[in-house]
Amino acid sequence: MTRPRPRALSGIKPTGSPHLGNYFGMIQPAITLQDSHDAFYFVADYHALTTGRDAKVLRDASREITATFLALGLDPARATFFRQSDVPEVLELTWHLACVTGTGLLMRAHAFKAAEEKGEAGTLPAGTFFYPALMAADILAYDSDVVPVGRDQLQHVEMAQDMGGHFNAAYGNVLRRPEPMVRAEVPTIVGTDGRKMSKSYGNTIDLFATEKNLRKAVMSYKTDSKGLTDPKDPDTCNVFSIYRLVATSEQIETMADKYRNPPPEGFGYGHAKAALAEKLLEHLAPARERYASWMSRPDDLEDVLRQGAAKARPLARAVVERVRAKVGLPKHPST
To answer: pTM value?
Structure first.
């Protein structure tokens, strides 16, 4: 079936406040796609259940993610934004995929391999082991054409392709094959300790942290020991790598020159960190105001999620009905 625009789908897990890595790596590129694609984005609250055990935290985090996307420019009239659990059909599709997927494929997933290397595979929750099947169902349930991902997440799409292929091989051409959309120009955002920015590492800078906390986090960035008058390489500095994402071309060039040719009074990493903090506060100020406004209106956030689910669920239901017909199950009673 030819579509006016390709359908793009992506999700984000509501585990803590969104940080700069989420923003530059997923949220900003995703929002841009609403101009060129039939964009579907969801809050992956089912996925959050593999690690979270606090119902209030999950509900609050889901609202934070929704408010973040809206504050940063997502337009519900041009993109479909919904809560994963408001479309329970993905759980049924997960089971159908699990029934044609070998455990060997699931054991190649990054999460399982990491647990295996730590000697913790035997204690891994079954939900985490089957996580790739649920993720594949998320992708396949909406007849997605493309899935925007970073290179480190490419496996998710590949596994969805494999599972959909297994199902199609067993039952015929039922599920649409998605393709990854790898954005080479999206950099890996480095956290304050030098590793990839991640909540699990505790090295993040929250998007809408208070001014005091944002400055404190930026000033904690790990750098080398070069002094004020020592030449420095901006291309290997984690502070500069983020500065160049929020500064103008002229500001980037000026900062790089100070790194390589410090002025007589010197230019140290402390100066670079202070400049980065200022640019982040300036860059995020308008979105911060919109975020605060959305968070003060939880009913409006729920309306956005409900309206998104009302658009997404019929698509998932149609896919599941195709699947049920092929495997020999009756139509769902609600259809």
So the answer is: 0.91
